[in-house]
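ok so i was messing around last nite and threw this chain in just to see what happens. nothing serious, just curious
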Amino acid sequence: MEIVFYWFIGLLCLASLIFYWIDWRKTRNRVKLGQAAIAIFASVVVLGMAGMETYDRMTTNYIVETGECYVVNDRSSRGSSNVKLWFGERAYGFKEIPDVAYGPGQLFSCRATITKQMQSGIDYELRSLDGELLYTTHSEN
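result:
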């Protein structure tokens, strides 16, 4: 759903670029030219992000991180992630909050799948250090 949102916003930026450019061609107003330049920048950034994320998911271009980790609630961040899995110094954001006790003092044996370009979280699983499965975002259908 997030990818669709990125594509939609990117295409809206592209449409606004067309409207600002046409308006600038009619009036030769510098403000309209500035708005067109901002629309170009926004279009490139948002469509670039959407393109990289779509490419990663279509080609299954993933990073798989395994090892000991801990989970931190990401309420203070403005990003789209709700939790972060910390593997030492590296952190990856995920939307799904686990329904087990977690925090910096609670270590798990983790396996996380992340897109390569954008490093956005796809799914993860938490196991006890003994190997017992405690939580997974991957649903078996």
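not much to say yet. Residues 10 and 45 are 8 Å apart (CA to CA).
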